[in-house]
Inverse folding.
């Protein structure tokens, strides 16, 4: 299928060619004809599928074809409104409209919070055909009577599920109430929970439904793997993973904003260029962090889900789930940041004992198990836990308990790991199973036997690490012993 056969006009075909697109993606082939025909649309598509062009191209064609009969002098009315959950996504959608509409003469403006209002006011005053906005700032400006939505012909809700997650439902309804009832409405969502379905029912009229979610390229083409590590072992494990020189652009997802900051702090200390992007950062900081990441100045971008949603950065080589997400669909979104446009991508998850249920949900959604890999380095032993004090038996019962817990955590990974193991060879299975038990603990059975109390083992571990590090930096990167990986500290990033 070609873009031409979809019925697009020459100015758009020209722009699409300049973008280097040769064939429409699945969502584009399915969505463009019904949207060109003027109907409502409910699209289930993930980021990375080309859904922006799927709605932007037909909107541009519609607005280009029907100029308003009597625009107010010098100020064309807003005829298309796109609502997006995050500033970054809004900015990207705005860029896409400008790129695809470059030969149409139509004007696109983006408005979002966190930055000064005056440049946005000026842009609106100059006249806008297509407005892309986050709901909060839009309502602010509407409240100040700086714009009107009375002439809107097409309304798009993009990433509707995320807007609901972010608590924008009331804002959305307030905005929709200000848009004429006679309009074309397009709603895109990566997932279709009941709330989205009922939002769609209330906003759309006999919509054409298109879905490309099951063919998500990310879920099938991205190489996925998981490491069972405990929370306190994750920082070291991440540094270890970053020793892979092929990991040139890594997006690291954490569950919390503080978590993202901690990751950056830790990596920066280890001379790995990293920045965080989350909603506690100012818009300027977020833009700068994203630019540096896009330009390759920073190798790692640590992000919370909301900030990273919709990010369109080329050539992300790795997505690292430093924390597994709370819901399986978010996992699919996250890994969809890599392996885009046919490129190879890798998704690595660090799963600790209390995230096994999340992992099971993800595997259920994917319909396959994610291969488990061995850490390949010595990881720090667990800190002493207050609920299991063992003052009378240092290195005895509590150590064994922990060993049992490590074993069982690998083992309960065992029931799920069991599925993946059945798919692999027998000896490999046994090796994976035993090494998993050891690395979940972050220690070999030999070192367990030789060591004293957990606290002492921990202190010994970090003493060894410090010694290895100073040996490595003093001896031109030669390993000071221990793991074969130690001493290979990344340089120049
Ligand atoms: P989206 O899902 O809209 O965020 O698009 C994901 C990426 O795919 C963007 O980098 C687009 O530039 C790119 N893209 C969109 N449509 C096509 C196409 N037909 N061929 C190649 N790349 C495309």
């Amino acid at each position: 299928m070609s873009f031409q056969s979809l019925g697009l006009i020459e100015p758009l075909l020209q722009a699409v060619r300049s973008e280097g697109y040769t064939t429409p993606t699945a969502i584009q082939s399915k969505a463009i004809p019904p949207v060109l025909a003027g109907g409502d649309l409910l699209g289930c598509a993930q980021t990375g599928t080309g859904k922006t062009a799927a709605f932007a191209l037909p909107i541009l064609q519609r607005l280009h074809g029907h100029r308003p009969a009597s625009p107010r002098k010098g100020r064309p009315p807003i005829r298309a409104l796109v609502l997006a959950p995050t500033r970054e996504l809004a900015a990207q959608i705005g860029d896409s409209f400008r790129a695809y509409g470059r030969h149409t003469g139509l004007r696109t403006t983006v408005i979002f919070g966190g930055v000064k209002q005056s440049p946005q006011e000026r842009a609106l005053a100059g006249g806008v055909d297509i407005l892309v906005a986050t709901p909060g700032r839009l309502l602010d400006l509407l409240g100040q009577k700086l714009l009107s939505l009375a002439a809107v012909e097409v309304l798009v809700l993009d990433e509707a599920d995320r807007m609901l997650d972010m608590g924008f439902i009331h804002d959305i309804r307030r905005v929709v109430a200000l848009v004429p009832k006679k309009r074309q409405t397009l709603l895109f969502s990566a997932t279709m929970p009941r709330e989205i379905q009922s939002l769609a029912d209330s906003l759309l009229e006999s919509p054409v439904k298109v879905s490309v979610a099951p063919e998500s390229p990310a879920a099938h083409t991205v190489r996925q793997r998981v490491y069972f590590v405990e929370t306190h072992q994750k920082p070291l494990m991440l540094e270890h993973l970053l020793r892979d020189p092929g990991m040139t652009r890594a997006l690291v997802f954490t569950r919390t904003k503080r978590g993202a900051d901690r990751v950056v702090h830790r990596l920066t200390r280890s001379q790995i260029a990293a920045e965080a992007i989350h909603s506690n950062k100012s818009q300027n900081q977020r833009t700068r962090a994203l630019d540096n990441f896009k330009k390759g100045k920073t190798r790692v971008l640590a992000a919370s889900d909301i900030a990273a949603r919709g990010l369109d950065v080329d050539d992300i080589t790795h997505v690292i789930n430093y924390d597994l997400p709370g819901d399986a669909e978010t996992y699919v979104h996250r890994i969809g940041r890599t392996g885009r446009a046919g490129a190879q991508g890798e998704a690595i998850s660090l799963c600790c004992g209390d995230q096994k249920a999340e992992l099971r949900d993800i595997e259920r959604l994917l319909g396959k198990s994610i291969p488990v890999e061995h850490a390949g380095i010595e990881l720090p032993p667990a800190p002493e836990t207050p609920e299991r004090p063992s003052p009378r038996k240092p290195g005895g019962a509590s150590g064994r308990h922990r060993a049992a817990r490590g074993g069982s955590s690998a083992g309960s990974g065992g029931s799920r790991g069991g599925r993946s193991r059945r798919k692999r060879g027998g000896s490999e299975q046994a090796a994976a199973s035993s090494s998993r038990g050891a690395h979940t603990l972050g220690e070999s059975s030999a070192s367990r036997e030789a060591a004293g109390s957990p606290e002492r083992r921990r202190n010994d571990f970090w003493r060894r690490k410090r010694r290895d590090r100073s040996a490595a930096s003093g001896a031109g990167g030669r390993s000071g012993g221990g793991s074969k990986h130690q001493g290979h500290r990344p340089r120049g990033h």
